[in-house]
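[Automated response] Your request has been received and processed.

Submitted sequence:
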Amino acid sequence: MVSSDQRRRQLAREKFERQQQRRAEKQRRARRRAAVIGAAVAVVVAAAATAFATGVFDGKSVKDKEDGTNVADAPPPTPTKKPDPCKKPAPGQTAKLSFDKEPKLDVDKSATYRMKLATTCGDIALDLDAKNAPRTVNSFNFLANKGYFDHTKCHRLTTQGIYVLQCGDPTAAGTGTPGYKLPDENLKDPKVKGGTYPAGTVAMANSGPNTGGSQFFLVYKDSPLPPNYTPFGTIKAGQDVLEKIAGAGESAGTGDGAPNATVVIDKATVTK
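Generated structure:
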């Protein structure tokens, strides 16, 4: 017989995977819209094209609820707003860089790499696993050196069933990528193959197999997840920072939304 705790974990896993699938579909729809807009621009005057683009990208994108109904048909959930425990972001803007291909693999697989996230809520130090996830670590070393992560918001916090803070997206909308995709790595790591990503794990977000980019998540409490997300490091310092962020809650009031805390990576550095 399945216990209530096991059932809760199963439901949390299924919810997380559905959310990943919806994000992938949203990205596909966005690409299709962009293609349509590109064709329209070629045959209409600039003023009309501008008006059309404004109508499409007005920030009122429609998302489907899990039961198949439209969010617009129901009132929004009452958000849970708690005080912001973090400081104001440092001056500056995201670089919004894009690259045609994955950087050349020149990471030292025998070396230890550490990534420091200087955030508005405090510093978080990560040890990166170059030996078992070389292409992922190589990409993060490359992107950090380019300033890709600087001034970016950590846009997603989950507080029910799965406990992660998601970062690494310059758009802060869950759709940003560096322009290339990374293969999955280290999925047979004994720490995650049992169906749980333990607290302290640093792993890649994705929208399906071999679709990693720049988005990653920090696990602040053991989370039931299938081993589908590249684990490429561990949190060595800053657990208290994550707990402070989690304690402030998320804005949607559903256990999955933007953090109430203003979590901005002022500066990301990778050192060997």
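Summary generated for your ticket: The mean pLDDT is 83. The chain has two domains: 1-75, 78-271.
If you did not submit this request, please reply to this message.
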